[in-house]
Amino acid sequence: MTAVGKAACAVALALAAATIEAAPANNISSKKHPNLAAAQHLTTQAYDKVVAAQNANEFDLGGHAKKARDLLEQANRELKAAAEYANTK
After folding, report:
1. Which of 30, 51, 61, 82 could form an S-S bond across to 37 if both were Cys, CB 3.0 to 4.6 Å?
2. pTM assigned to the model
3. What is the DSSP letter of 21?
């Protein structure tokens, strides 16, 4: 396989890996916690936009997009934890 062919395979594998990763979940009840559910929905939208940016730029974003996705996933989990905490009150 040529160097160009290997590079094309690497890009294809990277794109496939990004698509396999699931976006953060929307799993907060909008009836019980409308503001937290709305915030969580925004984190999933932002995550999707970061993935789209990575795809459009062939992942050449210096690792910053990956870090942004990780932070959005963390924010999503914290929002869920906040809703669960509120449920105990």
Report:
1. 30
2. 0.73
3. S
